[in-house]
Amino acid sequence: MELVFASNNQHKVEEIQAMIGSTIKLKSLRDIGCTEEIPETGRTFAENAGQKSRFVYEKFGLNCFADDSGLEIDALGGEPGVDSAHYSGSRNFEQNMQLVLDKLGDSENRAARFKTVISLIIEGEEFLFEGSVEGRITKSRTGTGGFGYDPIFKPDGYDISFAEMSADEKNRISHRAKATEKLISFLKSRY
Ligand code: IMP
């Protein structure tokens, strides 16, 4: 079976291909000639992931999955949420982190989680897979690895931030890894 991963990140596509095995052939957006910007206007991760997978299914008639991720902070009513990538009005990671730190100030309620939702569309039917990792927002940045909000997020049970972990260590516990594992076991059980 052929399956599109609605992503342009060839590295992510190859990584998941290696985990799925050879009965499913993964294709990226570039592989299918999808060059336009796919709309992402939902107010939840599931809506956005579903918008992307449905776009490909309807336009190209191909089975597809898409993901959407972000950070939810309890004391900010779940912000930045679906606005994680451009919370400060720009896609600048530094400015986005600074806005979170400024908004939280000295607040002691720093509980937060990263979430990923994957929407899979097979022959028009949608299946959702969710992964999350609970943690807290630090008072200042630590570490230089990762991306996005990693320097200000410490997962529960750890005294280091995501940005201080090796890529392997983060990949073992991350929201994205958990959602991806669920998708892969679903696909393996069916195909
Ligand atoms: P995407 O849906 O995977 O593109 O994630 C949207 C935004 O959420 C990113 O631009 C980051 O700001 C934030 N984000 C998602 N996953 C992570 C992560 O693992 N670490 C840090 N930030 C993340």
Top keywords for this entry?
5 helices; 6-stranded mixed beta sheet; binds inosinic acid; 24% strand; 191 residues; Maf protein; alpha/beta
Structure commentary:
It is a single chain. This protein is an alpha/beta fold and 191 residues long. The chain has a single domain, classed as Maf protein. The protein is built from 5 helices and 6 strands. It has helices at 10-20, 45-60, 93-104, 167-173, 175-190, and strands at 2-5, 25-27, 64-73, 111-122, 125-137, 153-155. Strands 2-1-3-4-5-6 form a 6-stranded mixed β-sheet. Strand 4 (111-122) and strand 5 form a beta hairpin. The radius of gyration is 17 Å and the shape is globular. 33% of the residues are buried. The site of inosinic acid has 14 residues, from strand 3.
> What proportion strand?
15-25%
Global Rg? 17 Å
CATH topology: Maf protein
Kindly, what is the distance between the CA atoms of the first and last residues, rounded to a whole number of angstroms? Answer: 8 Å
Mean pLDDT: 96
Widest β-sheet, arrangement of strands: 2-1-3-4-5-6
> Would you tell me the structural class of the helices and strands?
alpha/beta
Spans where pLDDT lies below 50 across 5 or more residues: none
Distinct small-molecule ligands in the complex: inosinic acid
Count of discrete domains: 1
- Reading off the top of the CATH hierarchy, the class is best stated as Alpha Beta
CATH architecture designation: Alpha-Beta Complex
Order of helices and strands: EHEHEHEEEHH
The level of helicity is: 25-40%
Number of helices: 5
For the report, how would you describe the main beta sheet? Answer: 6 strands, mixed
